[in-house]
Each structure stands twice: as C-alpha cells, then as structure tokens.
From TrEMBL:
<keyword id="KW-0963">Cytoplasm</keyword>
<feature type="modified residue" description="N6-(pyridoxal phosphate)lysine">
    <location>
        <position position="275"/>
    </location>
</feature>
<comment type="similarity">
    <text>Belongs to the kynureninase family.</text>
</comment>
<dbReference type="GO" id="GO:0030429">
    <property type="term" value="F:kynureninase activity"/>
</dbReference>
<keyword id="KW-0662">Pyridine nucleotide biosynthesis</keyword>
<comment type="subunit">
    <text>Homodimer.</text>
</comment>
<keyword id="KW-0378">Hydrolase</keyword>
<dbReference type="InterPro" id="IPR015421">
    <property type="entry name" value="PyrdxlP-dep_Trfase_major"/>
</dbReference>
<feature type="binding site">
    <location>
        <position position="305"/>
    </location>
    <ligand>
        <name>pyridoxal 5'-phosphate</name>
    </ligand>
</feature>
<feature type="binding site">
    <location>
        <position position="333"/>
    </location>
    <ligand>
        <name>pyridoxal 5'-phosphate</name>
    </ligand>
</feature>
<feature type="binding site">
    <location>
        <position position="252"/>
    </location>
    <ligand>
        <name>pyridoxal 5'-phosphate</name>
    </ligand>
</feature>
<comment type="pathway">
    <text>Cofactor biosynthesis; NAD(+) biosynthesis; quinolinate from L-kynurenine: step 2/3.</text>
</comment>
<dbReference type="InterPro" id="IPR015424">
    <property type="entry name" value="PyrdxlP-dep_Trfase"/>
</dbReference>
<comment type="function">
    <text>Catalyzes the cleavage of L-kynurenine (L-Kyn) and L-3-hydroxykynurenine (L-3OHKyn) into anthranilic acid (AA) and 3-hydroxyanthranilic acid (3-OHAA), respectively.</text>
</comment>
<dbReference type="InterPro" id="IPR015422">
    <property type="entry name" value="PyrdxlP-dep_Trfase_small"/>
</dbReference>
<dbReference type="GO" id="GO:0034354">
    <property type="term" value="P:'de novo' NAD+ biosynthetic process from L-tryptophan"/>
</dbReference>
<dbReference type="GO" id="GO:0043420">
    <property type="term" value="P:anthranilate metabolic process"/>
</dbReference>
C-alpha cells in the first residue's frame, strides 16, 4: 500500500515541505511505506510508539481517568503538564519529615542530604541548569514566574538619561505585559518607553536595530499563542549591539525546546515549571542570570536573607554578604512541599534528556502536522512550518467561526487541548508522556468534531463548557 492515498494528499504534503525542508515528514512517510502502511493508519501510530526510545516514560505519569469509556487524550502540556506518579509519595515523605522532625527537618537526618530543607533549592538546580543550557551558578529555583520577572526587571531595567526603552513582543502573555507596564511606570516612565513589535525574529531584530535609547529587550522565548520559537542568539547580538540587555521568558520553552541561555548570551531569563515541566499547578519557577553579571554588585537587586551566603546566614548580622550568581536573588526560605514536587519532575526530564525529548518532539509534532494537513487542509496552522522555529505546540486557526463548537465537542470526547480566543486551538504533544497514538486519536476526534459541527447537531455540554470558559474558568482542567 502507498504511504498515502491520492494526489490531494501529495499536494498537501508538498505544500508543507516547500516551506520546511528540514521537516521530519519525509521520515514518517518513509517509515510508513517501508512497513507498507497508510500514514493515517492506527498500525503506523502503534509501530512508531513501539520504536520510541522514550516510550517507558508515559507509564510514570497520571492521566485523567477514562470518561464514559473514553480514554483521556491529553495534549495540554503547554498549559498544565501531567503529574508524575512519584510526586505524591515525595510530597507525603516531606510532610512526614515535618511531622517527625519539626524544625530539625531543616538539617541532615537519616535521608539523603537533598531532602534537608535549608538547602532544598539545590535539589533540582543541576537538572534545571542542564535543561536551559546554563552553568549551575546561573540558575536558581524560587517563587513563581511573574514574581521572578519583576525581580529580574528590578535588577536589569535601570533606565538612565535617555536610555529608558523596553522592547517586548506585541501580544505578549498578559502577565508579562502587565509586569512591563508596572515596572516602567514605577520608575517614572511612560507608555512611550514601551515598544511593542509584531512578527518573528527578523522583525524583532529590525526593530531592535532601529530603536534608540533601548534599555531592555524582553521576549517570550517561545510565543505562547503562536508557538513560534524566536532565535535567542540573533536577539542577543542585536540587543547587545544597542548596549541593551536581553531577557527571555521561557515559560513555553523550558522543557520544550533545547535552550542555550549561557552560550546564546541571554542576560536574564525566567520560566515556570508547571507547563512542560510537570511540577504541579503554581509550581516553583526558575530564574537565570548570565555569569557575566555579578549579582553581588548590581544595584537593582531586591534582597532577602535567603540570598545571603549560606555559611554565615544564621549569624543574623546586619552587614549582609550575598551569594554570587543567581542564588543571590533569593528572598525567602522556599516552600518545601512544592520543592519536592519540582525535584521529582526535573529528575524525570533530566533522565530522559532534553536532546532525546527534542528528537521525539520533532517527530511527534510533524506527525500531528501531517495528519492535520491530510484530514483538514483548510485549517490554518499559525505556528511556523520550520521545525527549528517551534517547539511541540501547533496553533490551529479556524477561519470559519466554528472553533468554540469544535472545542466543546473535543471536550465531550475527553480530549484535552485549549481554546485561545478568538479562533485558535492550541495543541501540544509533550514528548515525555504523549505518544503517536494520542496524536492520531486527537486528529480522529477533530475530524469527527468538525464534521458534527458542519452538520450543526446539538452541542451538549460543549456549550456550557465554552460559556464557563468565557467567565474565566478553564473547563479543560475540571
Ligand atoms: C504561563 C505564563 C505566565 C504565567 O505566569 P505565572 O506567574 O506563573 O502565573 C506568564 N508569562 C508567560 C509567557 C506564560 O507563558
């Protein structure tokens, strides 16, 4: 049997390959024809899963239980990653530590040192630094994402004279936009100091080159809505040529794409750990400060006792000596229960390795792209076609006003994706726990949902779900 059925299929595939010569689609087609299977077949998905070197990791996660006999298809790792099975016990063990030792839990007891509380942030920082391409001392795990963004902007957004502008991507994640607005206004700046730029890396670089008085450039490393992965090195070069500093929000990049924050010359960065990093809702976030910046002498760093040198911290004196590197930015002693959840999740990612995850992700997302192109040629994918400019996520745009109805029907079919108004469905197969079978099942459900929507049948609880979401409730997580 041919890998695909007819001339229309061949044309749809050609259209993708013309735009993305480095796509994994030819490899998938080869595998299908070597096995004599149709690319749409369940057998191909099963064969690809069988050959997946990371397939065992799926067993280590909790999937939402079946609903009305339907298995959950979870493609929402860009929003909230699934729970590793080990997390529960780790949290219970930490509660037990508190119950057993009280305040003595801060210090070494019988367990491994990584469980003692007074140095507990060490428990995942090595894994985290490998994940984002940083030196160990450049990374600290603390707080939540927007808090870290403020702490970093406080340290690095230092407007002086006519150098006061901050450049961000247009339509940034709202929290980043709000952080920038409030940061500028709290320094006596105005709306004119914020430059918002539409487009990809080239447009951003052009705008950076054209902006006088640039102080900081702050970009989402992978754009949350479109899924575009910007070229950090090019952004850093252009930013530095203007005498400014580059910050990256890696919320959608950490655990998704291989970052090289140190080598790319990024000045500072932050990320959350609950999307691709599976550390739980509101999990402890990360922050990166490039080694070229001595945090001990940066005047804008906000201070707390946890940034103090460890060896003398408990002398409680009034003349502080701060830790070097990103660790100096810590304010408070960290909450230990979310920290042990972070440790379990980061260990899993580290064991799988970001390079192996990326290799699988390229294939998994190409498979999703291929099946959508074959089944839904009229749907627009607003994520870049070039795999080197995106991570796991595809943002599927519905130009016919049906996205709400389709989304409701997908929810009914126990599919977890998400709707971003006005018209985009975001879908991300996470390579650590998703499989080719999930992707195929999703596209099959999508075909069914689109078909039902065309027929205009009753939308049962899909309608309610869409209404609940409009009020700000994410039905997908209930
Ligand atoms: C998810 C996300 C956030 C969320 O911020 P929290 O402080 O974790 O609530 C902020 N910015 C970006 C770019 C995100 O993707």
């Amino acid at each position: 049997m041919a890998a695909f059925a007819d001339d229309d299929d061949a044309a749809a595939i050609d259209a993708i390959l013309n735009q993305a010569p480095s796509s994994k689609i030819p490899e998938l087609l080869d595998e299908a024809s070597k096995r004599g299977l149709d690319v749409r077949s369940e057998e191909l998905a099963a064969a690809l899963d069988e050959a997946d070197p990371l397939r065992e990791y799926r067993q280590q996660f909790c999937f939402p239980p079946p609903n009305h006999g339907r298995d959950a298809i979870y493609l929402c790792g860009h929003s909230l990653g699934l729970q590793p099975k080990k997390t529960k016990q780790a949290v219970l063990d930490d509660l037990q530590r508190w119950a057993t030792y009280g305040v003595e839990g801060h210090f070494d007891q019988d367990e491994a040192p990584s469980t003692r509380w007074w140095t507990i942030e060490d428990c995942a920082e090595e894994e985290a630094s490998r994940l984002v391409g940083a030196q160990r001392s450049e990374v600290v795990l603390m707080n939540s994402l927007t808090v870290n963004l403020h702490l970093l902007l406080s340290a690095f957004y230092r407007p002086e004279g006519t150098r006061r502008k901050i450049l961000i991507e247009a339509h940034a994640f709202p929290s980043d936009e709000y952080a920038v607005q409030s940061c500028v206004s709290s320094r006596g700046g105005s709306e004119e100091d914020i430059i918002r730029v539409e487009g990809g890396t080239d447009e951003l670089v052009e705008a950076i080159n054209a902006t006088d008085g640039l102080c900081v450039v702050l970009i989402g490393a992978v754009q949350y809505y479109s899924g575009e992965w910007f070229d950090a090195r090019k952004l850093a070069e252009a930013t530095h040529a203007q005498g400014a500093l580059l910050g990256l929000d890696c919320a959608h990049a950490a655990g998704n794409v291989p970052l090289q924050l140190h080598d790319d010359g990024v000045d500072f960065a932050c990320w959350c750990s609950y999307k691709y990093l599976n550390s739980g809702p509101g999990a402890i976030a990360g922050a990166f400060v490039h080694a070229k910046h001595d945090t001990r002498s940066l005047p804008g760093v906000l201070r707390g006792w946890w940034g103090h040198e460890r060896s003398t911290r408990f002398e409680m004196n009034q003349e502080p000596v701060y830790r070097a590197g990103a660790a100096g930015l810590q304010l408070s002693n960290p909450p230990t229960l979310p920290m042990v959840a972070l440790r379990e999740a980061y260990r899993l990612h580290d064991a799988a390795s970001i390079d192996a995850l990326r290799a699988k992700s390229l294939k998994l997302t190409a498979y999703l792209e291929l099946l959508i192109a074959l089944e839904h040629p009229s749907l627009e994918i607003v994520t870049p076609r070039d795999p080197s400019r995106r991570g796991a996520q595809l943002s599927i745009k519905f130009n016919d006003g049906t996205v709400e109805g389709v989304f409701g029907r997908l929810q009914k079919a126990h599919i977890f994706a998400d709707l971003r108004r006005p018209d985009v469905l975001r879908v991300a197969p996470a390579p650590l726990y998703n499989c080719f079978g999930d992707v195929r099942a999703f596209v099959e459900a999508l075909t069914q949902a689109v078909h039902e929507e065309e027929l205009g049948g009753e939308l049962e609880f899909g309608g309610e779900a869409a209404a609940a979401q409009a009020e700000g409730l994410e039905e997908a997580f209930i």
